[in-house]
Amino acid sequence: MGCADFLGCFKPQPLITEAARTVPNQPKEAIPTRASGAPSNETRTNGSKSSHAVGLRNSITKPPTSTLRNYNAIVEVSDNASEYYKEKPQPRIDWVIGLDFGTTYSGFAYARMEEDPQIHVYYEWPLKENERHYCKTLTGLYYKRAGPGRLECASWGYSARTEHMDHKSGPNGGQGHYLTKFKLLLKPASKKNDPVHAAVIPPPPPLTRDTVITDYLKCIGGLALSVLRSHVGETIFSKDSVKWCVTVPSIWDNNAKQKMKECMVNAGLVDCVEAVQVVLEPEAASLHCHEILRRDHQHKKDVSLNVRDKILVVDVGGGTVDIVVQELIASGDHEFKVRELTESSGGLCGGTFVDERFMRFISKKVGCLEEFLRKDSPSYLTKLLLDWEQIKCAFGSEMMSSSETMNIRLHYKLSPKWEAFEKEHGRAIEDSSVVELTQQDLKSIFDPVVDEILELIAAQLKQVPDIKVMFVVGGFAGSPYLMQRIRARFKGRVKHIVSPPSPGSAIVQGAVSLALNPEAIVSRVAKKTYGTSVMRPFDSKLDPPELLKVTDGKKYCKNRFDVFVKKGTDVEVNKLCVAKGYVPHSHGQRQIMFDLYSSTEQEPRYTVTSDTVTYEGGFVVDLPKNWSKDDAPEYEFSMYFGRSVIELKAERKISEKGGQEARTMSVPVKYASSL
């Protein structure tokens, strides 16, 4: 069922806003509370007109006022109405940059906008001796003190780790703070004092999530732009000629995706959030893997894909695992189109969680390790994880025998402390300079995380059993042990299980490909029910008395959930889902605000009183200065739920002088995050 068909199943219920300017022929049967704009009419995607209008903000679920701060920095709006609505010429796009901002590693690829573009993956990261050549650099930052209560970003990537390890004295390296895994800060917080934030940005650094992410994007994005300048020359290169495609996990909510766009603006890479295209990581990987199979068709005829074949993509990164099931609906030398078959799924069970299990294992083995890291050499943790990385990447490879053990050599100052610790507890150790890891030890570290990944795959296969190809990509897909376990578990249920060459670069290459092939993703499945908060006639048999509001002698129920798109609905990417008309309701009003809620239920009744409903944020449109009540600006809001980010587009109806027909002009829309 398409989006238009779905919305057409419901009988429209007329709504108006409280204290709103009366719109001719507008029924007054239901009222949203404390509205920021009055609805005029609504157009469904099938073109029919109805009086079903939607309310905006309500008093009970009012979001924090801080959510609307600093938006002038994102979209500059002139107080002069003619300037505000002045159409600006779009810059010519000559380049596409795909940016993969990962939990553990990040990288970028780029291509020139031309008929047969060649995608270039950046590999020239600075490496120390014995470090492996890789398509990404570390997602890490090193901050130094720049005065009382102030820190400044001193280095990033591999260089940040090197500088941190060089400053070995005192807590936090003595000279500054080394931060990693800050991508995880974009996940929805499970509680007010989220332990993930405390682990990534421990006190007392005066740093925030937005500051850290923006600093990193500024560093890696600046390098990407400098690479393009080297191709075309400093004098003729313009950052406005670049289209940015930023990859995000499909399991992220709309707030996290919008926050990435805002951080790109704050990093100075683009001038507005509309200039950033969000690409879902497993979808990018799917297109890249399809192109590999197409290029190698002469050599791998048995792995070719045909229309109606079903694909399962498993993106196993450092922090997140993303799984999407697609059906191929068009395939050819220059055509690739897919539709999503199930709600994408995933979880926080990537390679970095294997690292955490290793740290728990070795901390239990070396009982004084945590104290040593806290008091003697905090920077040794980085060296310890670097040594572990080599073992992690080798485990399960054909080069290792089933009985081979691996050793981690300990810090020379830790060895005597460990020996003394064991002696104090009545134990003796044969060699305090190394920790031995047997094959069974390694399995105990890997298996809980790997088992979780396998169960996520199995859950998708249960919904769509006839999968022809499973693509496994992402940095952790380079683990021989993980691939062994995946093939052993699913070889009888999936015809082909493929991990492409350099699986860590699959997503960033696919991001560029998707930017060059924007029609590739035809439809997605709505993961939640989306809507807004309105008032409707009060039903004493169903509605609680605390939601009762009496207006003009009529009883209304506040905080009713007005559904736009229902969970599990197949939503086409470029099909309009909801269109509503609005006018401001009071003189001096400077903005129209449109709140958005989501629910894991298919038929939520209220936007409050339920743990299944979340305030997602809202959309904000600035009004021209000194608009008059007699000639209030009229807007139409168009909402798209099938895209990688929920989008609202706003157009204003402009009256022409001399009896000419009115025209519409696009106006800027800002997203007010609830994060």
From TrEMBL:
Q: Name one GO molecular function term.
A: ATP-dependent protein folding chaperone
Q: Does the keyword tRNA processing apply?
A: no
- The source's domain of life comes to Eukaryota
Q: Does the keyword ATP-binding apply?
A: yes
Which keywords accompany this UniProt record? ATP-binding, Nucleotide-binding
Q: Name one Pfam family in it.
A: HSP70
User: Where is the region Disordered?
Assistant: 24-61
Residue ranges under compositional bias (Polar residues)?
Answer: 38-51
> InterPro entries given for it?
ATPase_NBD, Hsp_70_fam
**What is the designated name of this protein?**
Uncharacterized protein
Source organism per UniProt: Ceratodon purpureus (Fire moss)
